[in-house]
Amino acid sequence: MAMLNEREETLSREELERLQSERLVWQVKRTYERVECFRKRMDEAGLTPDDIHGIEDLHKLPFSYKKDLRDYYPYGLFAEPLKNIVRVHASSGTTGKRIVVGYTKNDLDLWADCFARMLTAIGATDEDVVQVSYGYGLFTGGLGAHDGATRIGATVIPMSSGNTPLQIQNMIDFGATILCCTPSYALYIGEEIERAGLKDQLKLKAGIFGAEPWTENMRREIEEKLGIKAYDIYGLSEILGPGVGCECEYQEGMHVWEDHFIPEIIDPDTCEVLPKGATGELVFTTITKEGFPAIRYRTRDICSLDYTPCKCGRTHVRMRKPTGRSDDMLIIRGVNVFPSQVEEVLLSIGGGEITPNYFITVDRVDNNDTFDLDVEMSEAFFADDVKSIAAVERTIAEKLRSALGLGVKVHLVNPKSIARSEGKAKRVLDKRKLS
Ligand code: DLL
Predict the structure, then answer these.
(1) Which fold has domain 330-433?
(2) How many whole angstroms separate alpha carbon 337 and alpha carbon 408?
(3) What is the pLDDT of residue 435?
(4) Site residues for ligand 1, CB cut-off 6 Å
């Protein structure tokens, strides 16, 4: 298959490391001069940019965290004045405020290239019709895929997510050949198509699915239901959005575009860098991004890196499918959810009807994620007024919908009926079988 940036995608390891070293030195210097949080951490570690000569010094640099985005909300981590930022995106933080990231024009170009490299890697061209069914808006999925498909000159159908009957109708009428959405939504669309007996009217040949963990079994099911090849794509808002890592035609791990991002695997407890091939937490340093540079950003995603050569000829390392997280973030219907966000909403509800004791149960029924929340009512409310339970449940569900952007089934339960634990409270049961 063709490559979008053949020279960059096939650099030898030495050339790649030389380029990474140059770019890292540039990024560290610039971020030190422009971003207070990074400068403070470097100062605390007794480091200056002059101590960083290349990738051999990467391990000396301080880590950065999701929490930093909250502490410097909204723009405090940007390395460019707002007049040079042409777009912002946002994603869930651990509490009420979303985390905000910003892009310069060059950043948007680099993002479009990263996504377009993948499209090219799976054989897409300007003849293709790309249906983008990731959500458009603050989420990076929709616009990320949109710009990538535009970059290769494909015809974009900017559907956004939802309204499945229209998705299917447009897919057929407009002759979509490539579908971009979350894997769980792809499976759902596939089921609906199967139910309606419309599979033979599809022109689809491939799908680009990511934003949440998925299994090889799901891949086979999607491929079978839609009659396509299903490819995995990885990314996160803090580093870029979709396109940090992308599968090629061989579907044996996602190439991380190492001319833009340096990946490391660390032990999440000791923070030691682990040897090549080991499984641990993925950490990224962006070496070309201008607006929102990230130095040794702790993704909390658990996976491993494969440095063996790929049959496609690309030299960039491949990340294995993330198998879990080192924090408590859940991804429900493609939306990132932290239990602390739920807790914050419960605490914000006055009136004395409920307590902040809750339990989240996540499951997958008919390929759709379900999200159930048990909340203990207060003794006073229980004794007084059992009739208005439904109204309180509705209020909680509405507040959660506006805080998380997700529908939640809320169940008020009797006082003291949620098990107390002696150690760290266990507040989540994820019944989805993802490994
Ligand atoms: O989910 C970006 C994206 C959009 C990627 C569309 C792929 C396709 P966030 O909302 O910031 O960004 O969520 C990032 O989602 O840290 C992972 O935990 C998870 N994630 C993303 N892609 C995958 C994947 C987008 N292919 C968080 N497999 C990340 C497993 C994934 N988990």
Answers:
(1) GMP Synthetase; Chain A, domain 3 (3.30.300)
(2) 12
(3) 47
(4) 91, 134, 140-141, 210-213, 232-237, 241-242, 299, 301, 321-322, 325, 331, 336
